[in-house]
Amino acid sequence: MTSPPSVPPARERTGRVIRAQSGFYTVETDAGPVVAVLRGLLKRERRQEGLVALGDDVRVQLLDLPAGETGPVEASIVEILPRRSALVRRAPGPKGAWAQDVVVANIDQMVAVFAARQPTPHLRMLDRFLAIAEIDELDSVIVLNKVDLGAPPDVDAALDVYARIGYPVIRASVRSGEGVDALRAALVGRISAVVGPSGVGKSSLLNAVEPGLALQTGEVSESVDKGRHTTRVGELHPLAGGGKVADTPGLRELGMWDVDPGELEWAFVEFRPFLNTCRFYDCTHVHEPGCAVRAAVETGAVSAARHESYVALLQDAPRRRP
Ligand SMILES: Nc1nc2c(ncn2[C@@H]2O[C@H](COP(=O)(O)OP(=O)(O)O)[C@@H](O)[C@H]2O)c(=O)[nH]1
Ligand SMILES: [Mg+2]
Ligand SMILES: [Zn+2]
Question: Distance (Å, rounded) from C-alpha 92 to C-alpha 320?
């Protein structure tokens, strides 16, 4: 008995984007990984590239390739499921506007790595990262790598400030092995994104944490991340103990996206106890009389350097309020 040829029902799966490169996405599904592209219609609806981010949960439709044939693309992404979190940066968009750029979606924490030396740590940049993570509602872990080179005393003192305000601080060295177990423990069972300037040892640290990863280190190339038209490869690496981690190449500036001054003050966690006690309800904590945050800076309860970072970020943030 023969039956008329019928269109097989669309085979759909959901999964997580674990690799993104030049419009090709590796989606981890229950039945294994599939390489998918974004369906044209979805692309047109949203009118932009980069709609799918590393870490996104997506619905894919498996392509019906002729029997016996295999192709590089096995599925098309037909839906991006709601994100529960995202690490977002501000990137130059069309016509000089700022566009939102999701670096990694659905992560639990940001791991900010700096080097004790080579390159010199920029704590202003760390404060920016931490503020972004707070705004994105992500936990943060701070890693000072290359402690074998000896941290400058002011950097050591500053790290104590971060520990005091509640951030986990790991002093590490890939050379000596110090801190590697602590970093592994911080990563296990969680989805993390590692951020920080080039050359601080992000990839080396991850290789030490997870020897099978074999991430490229040393030869530092920023070119992959210079402009929006260049290729960026993103990958969520599985960890033996459970969890996943994304190494972000050359993410020098993790800009602020559409930050409201009211959000920024909240993003400096140690300001929170003082925010409702300023004389003016709309105090920006820069110059107003009766400012409880600045009073706390005077007494040393809030670090002057952190307050300076806050002021710098406030001036940098796009204003939505008049
Ligand atoms: N002295 C020292 N050098 C390190 C350490 N970790 C990494 N490096 C070196 O720093 C350079 C940059 O490392 P890499 O992992 O590529 O940095 P990334 O750009 O942040 O991923 C390489 O030459 C590493 O060998 C460390 O703990 N101590
Ligand atoms: Mg690297
Ligand atoms: Zn104030």
Answer: 18
